[in-house]
Amino acid sequence: MSELISHTPTWVFAIFFTLLVLGFIQSKERIVKVNSVFILPISMVVFSLFGVLSVFGITISAMGFWITGLIVALIWGIKLAYPKLVSFSAQNKRLTIPGSWAPLIFMMAIFFTKYIVGYAVARELAIVNEFMFMATINILYGAFSGVFLSRSFVMFKASKTAM
Question: What DSSP string describes 27-79?
Answer without folding.
Answer: TS-EEEEGGGGGHHHHHHHHHHHHHHHHHH-S-HHHHHHHHHHHHHHHHHHHH
